[in-house]
Design brief:
Elements lengths: L5 H9 L2 H56 L1 H9 L4 H33 L6 H4 L6 H27 L3 H4 L2
């Protein structure tokens, strides 16, 4: 005969095997949900870092494009400066071009994101990955950051163009 232990008494009080299995399953499900929540926060943090690095790389690209534009148009800048153009006009011209490049790139990125969000649900992966959505708040913050990075990336080549001396620029 079995000895009456605490475990056996608990088993008898709990309602048998099904109650023990249900209690164990509930504990496992609760642990999985806590773990899933932690993983979700890790993915959100990782996505934020990837997004920030993407914006920085985009800023570097804009800066490189503007450096090439300044090099190609050095004589034009020299002529403008020789005719009396002020530094702020030269800087303004290049900043307008920078903003145009940034806006076109931002619109293209938004359209690509929107099309992915529109097509993705028809592929049937919602159960595994979720349903992608574009958040207005995130889009507004990203647009602001993109504009600031574009402005900063274009300012330094524009300043370099504005500091050229007309005689040196015309060579």
């Amino acid at each position: 005969m079995r000895k009456a232990t605490k475990k056996n008494a608990l088993y008898a009080q709990s309602g048998g095997v099904s109650a023990v299995i249900n209690a164990s399953a509930a504990g496992v499900i609760d642990a999985c949900m806590k773990h899933r929540s932690r993983i979700g926060r890790l993915y959100a943090g990782r996505d934020g870092i990837v997004g920030a690095l993407t914006l920085v790389v985009g800023g570097i690209g804009v800066s490189n494009i503007m450096n090439v534009v300044v090099e190609e148009r050095t004589k034009e800048i020299g002529i403008k400066m020789a005719l009396g153009a002020k530094r702020r006009y030269v800087i303004g011209q290049f900043l307008v071009e920078t903003r145009l490049i940034t806006v076109v790139g931002g619109i293209a990125g938004f359209l690509i994101s929107w099309s992915i969000c529109a097509v993705f649900p028809s592929l049937g992966f919602q159960e595994f990955i979720g349903d992608p959505r574009i958040s207005f708040q995130v889009a507004a913050i990203t647009t602001t950051i993109l504009g600031a990075i574009g402005l900063l990336a274009g300012y330094f080549p524009a300043r370099a163009a504005a500091t050229l001396r007309p005689v040196e620029a015309l060579r």
